[in-house]
Amino acid sequence: MLEAIHPDLLGGVAAVLTTIAFVPQVMKSWRSGSTRDVSLGMFVIFTTGLSLWLVYGFVIASRPIIIANVVTLGLTGIIIALKLRDMFGRTPRTPAAD
């Protein structure tokens, strides 16, 4: 059955799923103004891995890998920036009223 699935389609679906997995964390951190429960170490290690996947995507000229990792790097970059902001003294902003 897997032989019938085009590799770029499979890679594209995997890329979309792994990329959008970070959207809820970005939205929660942004809305709450807090990254207290976010592990900086995990995100730094993960972002390093994403960077290597991006380089690999360029080496093998794989659009799904390149696009997914560029977008995911942006999302993880937001989380890391918010975490660093929280760690170095800036008071987290007040959550928006719903």
Structural summary, described in words:
The chain has 98 residues and is an all-alpha fold. The chain has a domain at 38-84: Up-down Bundle (Monooxygenase). It contains four helices and no strands. It has helices at residues 7-20, 23-32, 40-60, 63-87. Helix 1 runs parallel beside helix 4 (63-87), helix 2 packs parallel to helix 4 (63-87) and helix 3 (40-60) packs antiparallel against helix 4 (63-87). The longest helix is centred in the C-terminal third of the chain and has 25 residues, at 63-87. The radius of gyration is 16 Å and the shape is elongated. The N and C termini lie far apart (47 Å).
* Share in helix: over 70%
Structural class: mainly alpha
**Biggest pleated sheet:** none
Number of strands: 0
Rounded Rg? 16 Å
Give the low-pLDDT segments.
none
Distance between the termini: 47 Å
List the secondary-structure elements in sequence, H or E.
Answer: HHHH
CATH topology of the domain at 38-84: Monooxygenase
Strand-residue fraction?
under 5%
**Which architecture of the domain at 38-84 per CATH?**
Up-down Bundle
Number of helices: 4
Spatial shape: elongated
Mean pLDDT: 83
**CATH secondary-structure class of the domain at 38-84:** Mainly Alpha
Could you list some keywords that capture this structure?
98 residues; mainly alpha; Monooxygenase; elongated
